[in-house]
Design goal:
Length: 131
């Protein structure tokens, strides 16, 4: 019984504190709604690297898209932004082996050619467009 009365006393204090600051409650409800929106809009797409080909080798996506490349070949490849033999610097996976993945999120519209640093005939393009 003693614990119950203490609990009741504490909750009475908490209620009085909450009621003492009427301007506080409306603020937290507005913030979370705004932060959830971009997460729901973002998308993920997959590209396989198979038989020395990016599949698909040409892709158009909206800003905010994350692309995941998966190496299906039993040899190392890279996903390097630029045109052979010149990396452009927006992204570069480095060489990665069979079964491994590399992902990159495109936040700026534009054309992003890319290639494998070891096999320069292996090339692809990502076109990023505003939503
Ligand atoms: Cu390669």
């Amino acid at each position: 019984m003693k614990y119950i009365s203490i609990a009741m006393a504490l909750s009475a204090i908490l209620v009085s504190v909450a009621c003492g600051t009427p301007s506080a409650p409306p603020a937290p409800t507005a913030v979370p709604a705004a932060t959830i929106q971009p997460t729901a809009a973002s998308k993920t797409m997959n590209i396989d690297i198979k038989l020395f080909t990016y599949k698909p080798d040409s892709l158009q996506v909206p800003v905010g898209t994350t692309i995941i490349w998966t190496n299906q070949d039993a040899i190392e490849h890279s996903v390097t932004n630029g045109t052979p033999p010149n990396p452009a610097g927006a992204f570069d996976s480095g060489l990665f082996t069979q079964g491994k993945t590399f992902s990159f999120t495109f936040t700026t519209p534009g054309d992003y050619p890319y290639f494998c640093v070891r096999h320069n005939s292996l090339q692809g393009t990502i076109k990023v467009v505003a939503q």
